[in-house]
Amino acid sequence: MQPQSPRSLHGAPVESESHNMVSQVPALPQSYAPGTDSVFSDQSGFYSLDSNVPGLSKVILNKLNMKDYGEYRTAVEGKAQGISFRNYKEMFQKMEDTFKFCTGCNKLPEHLAEGQTLKRCVKCLNVYYCTKECQKKDWPQHKKVCKLLRLVAIDRLVEWLMFTGDLPFPTEKWSKSAAGVKNWDDWLSMQGDLTPRLDAILSGADMASLWKNVSRPRPDESDLQQSLWRLQSEFLSRVLTVGMAMKHFGLDPYAKPLTIHLAGASHNETMGARITDYDELSYMFPGHQGIEIVMVGPEVVDGPIVRPPLSAFGPKHTVYINAYKSLYHQFWEELVEKEEAAKPDLVVGFHPGFHANQGLIEGWLPTLLLLRDYNIPSFFTMYSEMELKCSLQILLELEMHIRDSGANPFSSQKPEQVQACPNKMPVYYNAHYVCFHGLLPQEGVQEPRPGS
């Protein structure tokens, strides 16, 4: 079902009364669970919930001693009490258990015959099969992605180091202007030799503890080096994509302080977030007048960045991060309209996913109409060309003025597995983007002459 034109949905075009309009649209339901083909991972990407595999969501909850999705969500947000693991080995084993279903026939461990167990693909160590027959039948599809899924399996374990403090590793000040850094190669050319920074992590106690406690052999050092870089790229992809969005819309952080809202922020952006996470923007725009990053979303996780937004200009040369747990249009009504938070110069959305189903487009519709009617420069990212195409269709039906779209040169280098369908080609965080600004100009419509 496609969203209706906002004109037919609400009767007449809305300008300054968007805050009244958006309240009439249903909000994202608390019971929402990810839909088919979604890429949905928790704090470390260890496990996913996806409704396309019968019983998979249930087995995840069982492994983690949770009764429903609401309890899982509470745990992800850091509010659950009494959910703990006796040791790292138990934690990693339970996380791995959530990936155990037959890729060939979708059988879960409890559906196997007595004495039968799921066997892991020895090449990728990522997917499981209940019988050799299932594996042989699945091989024509699996062989297309087996090598990539091996990287996924490494990354989802090494990602734990994002929460031990080993990652991200320190970066160097920029020797080029923002205009001169157009892709990862340009960024890497300013970093010098990364080997000492990577070796320090590889030889660290946390890396040793990781491979001591997981049920698989430690990969070669070169594989681990590349994994560390892929995880670093995903972290920096958010920051550099924000900087790219600023350049797309010609925003000048040297002329005045800028406020940037991250709409739809979730645990992916806020779990373990630190107040220094966007400091790369100060390397990108040295000497800027001040940049405020406000993360807004219903799944914002409590932490040091959950603090009041700025209502006046912040300190110069500093990136100030804060977060607010709310749907974006509610945040606008509760704080922006009351001048308790600054209006944004730019709104960025990482993977809003409003193309996925009717529930999500209904949840996002108030925000999209608000961005359109308040004429706010907006920049959203997608995992794939398919998502981009579907998102463009929705935005055009909402009469958005689309300024540009395409492949993101600062896409994450870390492949993301589609959990329910492991043999689908992995996708990449922030791989594509669309920027839009205001209402689509009405071509061929002339103003009526006086007296006509």
From TrEMBL:
Signal peptide boundaries: none
Keywords: Metal-binding, Zinc, Zinc-finger
Cross-referenced SUPFAM superfamilies: HIT/MYND zinc finger-like (SSF144232)
Gene3D superfamilies xrefs: 6.10.140.2220
Keyword field contains Lipid biosynthesis: no
Cross-referenced Pfam families: MSS51_C, zf-MYND
A GO term, aspect molecular function: zinc ion binding
All residue ranges annotated as the MYND-type domain in the record: 102-146
Annotated region (Disordered), positions in chain: 1-22
Protein name: MYND-type domain-containing protein
Organism: Mola mola (Ocean sunfish)
